[in-house]
Amino acid sequence: MTSIAVRAPAKINLFLAVDAPGADGYHNLTTVFLALSVFDTVTVSSVEAGAGLRLTVTGTDTAAVPVDSTNLAWRAAVLLAQRTGIDADASITIDKQIPVAAGLAGGSADAAATLVALDGLWGTALDRDQLGELAAELGSDVPFALHGGVAFGAGRGDRLSSVLTRGRTDWVLGIARTGLSTPTVYAELDRLRAQRHVPGAADPAGVLTALRQDDAELLGRGLANDLAVAALSLRPDLRRAVRAGAEAGALGQMISGSGPTVAYLARDPEHAITVAARLSAEGLFAGVRVASGPAPGPRLPRSAR
Ligand code: C5P
């Protein structure tokens, strides 16, 4: 096997409650993750021994993605090689379809797919738990990126447990013209909370029940994100984008993760197209996409297993 391609989905948080920061600066989270059918594809290929790592990025937003050791996919390759005691020799190509710095965990998706793909290419054959430990070292969202589907997240968002879900959910994503930095959004939330009382997300019961019962209306009412107030404070223009959801007929909407992407819930695929067309006509976004969830996490192709 000299070349392996693995797809990794974007994620949104259906529910995201953020506690005060701990001594390490990280915030304890209570979150429900959902992977969506917007995928980056990571292709890894053998190179000659001693050649090291080479990273290439194709697709959308390529200028915004580093192609050196600061890229989380590169760090994933180095970490896997170190822990398994082999030389990090590979060519990695990321075909980016997930918008960058958008609150959709595209970088984490690439890192998770890189772990899976290189584990196959290098024959290191780690099990899911071992890959999950490496994922948690790389970033808070990487364990879910490896998991895919739907999951409940605690701790930094890296302690996952399963969520019962029936059926699919349909979404429209409003992609902003410029991104937001995750640490900046967390810092803004801390700043706002130091100034005044900021009402927070209550509990994820509504979202969990809605997923279990395949009840899109209930899901729409349960969507909540504590980071939204901070993202809106940094980017007041997003208020219009959030408001536009109700006018376009969405069942609910929220800022995804640390933003600035706004995720709008639709009743079914046809309704998603209608909502997307209405939102496109508003001219608020760089792009509007339809997607569905839960989408599967990164897996080795059958031929490489
Ligand atoms: O873990 P990761 O490197 O993806 O986190 C990026 C940044 O997001 C952290 O540096 C921190 O500022 C913030 N963060 C946080 N609490 C979390 C997850 C992320 O404060 N649970």
Blueprint of the fold:
Layout: E1 3-21, E2 27-45, E3 53-59, H1 72-84, E4 90-96, H2 106-121, H3 128-138, H4 142-147, E5 150-154, E6 159-162, E7 169-175, H5 182-195, H6 205-213, H7 216-222, E8 224-225, H8 228-234, H9 238-247, E9 252-255, E10 262-266, H10 269-282, E11 287-293
Helix pairs in contact: 1-2, 1-3, 2-3, 5-8, 6-7
Cytidine-5'-monophosphate (C5P) binds next to strand 2 and helix 5.
Care to describe what's here?
The chain has 305 residues and is of the alpha+beta class. The chain has two domains: 3-163, 2-Layer Sandwich (Ribosomal Protein S5, domain 2); 169-293, 2-Layer Sandwich (Alpha-Beta Plaits), CATH 3.30.70.890. Helices cover 35% and strands 28% of the residues. It contains ten helices and eleven strands. The chain has helices spanning 72-84, 106-121, 128-138, 142-147, 182-195, 205-213, 216-222, 228-234, 238-247, 269-282; strands at 3-21, 27-45, 53-59, 90-96, 150-154, 159-162, 169-175, 224-225, 252-255, 262-266, 287-293. The strands form two sheets. Strands 1, 2, 3, 4, 5, 6 and 8 form a seven-stranded mixed sheet that branches. Strand 3, helix 1 (72-84) and strand 4 form a beta-alpha-beta unit. Helix 5 (182-195) crosses helix 8 and helix 6 runs antiparallel to helix 7 (216-222). The longest helix has 16 residues, at 106-121. It is globular, with a radius of gyration of 19 Å. It starts with a strand and ends in a 12-residue tail after the last strand. Residues 26-27, 29, 139-141, 156-157, 182-183, 186 line the site of cytidine-5'-monophosphate.
